[in-house]
Design goal:
This protein is α/β, with parallel strands linked by helices. It is about 45% helix and about 15% strand.
Length: about 525
Amino acid sequence: MALRTLATSATLLVGLAVIGALSGPDWNPMPFTDHIRPAAASTEIGGTEAGMADGRVHAPGTFEVRSTVVTVELDGYEVSALLREPVGAGDDLPGMVFVHGAGTGRWTDAFPAQAEQIASAGVVTLVPDKRLDTYTLWHRDYVAMADDYLRSVDFLRDVDGVDPDNVGIYAESEGTWIAPVMQAKDPRVSFTVLASAPVVAPRWQAAFAVDNYLRNTRVPSQVFRAIPRAVGIQLPSGMLDYADFDVTPWLERQTAPVLVLYGTGDISMPIEQGTRQIIADTAMAGGVAPVTVRFYAGADHGLRIDGAVVPDVSRDVAAWVQGMPETATAQPRIAGAEPQQLFYASSFPRPRWWGNGDIIIGAVLGGAGLLLVGPLVWVVTSLVRRLRTAARGLPESGPARHRLAPGIRPLLLGISLTSVVTVVALVVYLMAVARLALNYEQDGIVVQGGWIGVRLLGLAIVVVFARFIGRVRDVRAARHAGDTDAAVAVGWPAHLTLWTVLVGSASLILWLAYWGVYQLGI
């Protein structure tokens, strides 16, 4: 019997491994080789001599800052904003509107250091709230968001002391998909600062970021297969409709100078690829949108080191903005620390029949539901039958008419429990890995031991299933040998329980195979 169970288990494992391999793509990112070598180590902006000579360029801290909460009117909506003005800096000052990344929505928690420091250098800054009534996890319209932010640009142009022809944008992360749209729709936008810009489509950037986070966490190689299968899921129409947004056509329409800022410690962004693409795309407009690039050593996605924004960021942005037009084309164009991007952020094969988000969710919920339906119906049916028999004063003869063969019930229970426990364990494991990855932490016991544990649980399902198959064969062999009482299931409640448990468990097992629990190097 042990050899039979072993052979059946091996056959099931190979089958699940093949199904897992065929149900979705593998993950094979292309190594990045087109590395950038900055022309200078210092990030200081060139071309500021003329501006310093005529009093246009000032360092952060030169002026006191007056802060005022204002209201910006949008189309049928209004947002609050914080206006910061340098006191005593004179008239015809440059203005800068800040565009949020995905992590912030209110001016109260967005750009406190950059907006304050840049304003203290002589640039009027405006940090508006993000319009949140049309912004959700499932729906984001970057073109419409550009129209909303342009209302803030118009507002800043009307502020006393601001040169209306010298108002630009500082955008961070997700906001860098919006800023090029703003500049293309309103060519009067005089400059664009793109901080920590993903550039590539959100779906590509997400896969790139997850890959780097997982590498930093040192997860087993088998876990990487989940990247294209998770990021490539197609949700119902209208959900995550922004995942494939292409900013390239908008970058190609840029006419104003662009300053690109990256931290070399930002593993979530394709910092070298993004630089190459911005330079190439903006050149499509005929070279009228010069690009300056700065890399800050060790800075993270928020251009921070140990939680504080790198001071040189505000210094460089203020100098670049105030020193226009000389600073727009001054050398060195690319400067700072040497970046090191490992792989390209690019398109990837999409999942096949499991690529629909409804199927992914339905497989788990449907499978778990089926595990409950059959047994619940059987219990209710048995109770009703017993109550009826007791009311009539008859002996309980019903159970013999509704039964499972000896040994079948505990095996079905084992299949159900191991399937559910393994699914839960996989979800818990992935959540633990995500927490470690997002916090840039490593834990070998959780990462390596957790994956081994999940795979052992998956193996336990297969072994129990193999024993179930063997028991079914024994019952059928006994029946063929003349034992008329031998039957896997007797009565419709027993048959319903049998098949709902088998189908429900199979759904969960296939779901586990999709996420790589049964990989055998196939």
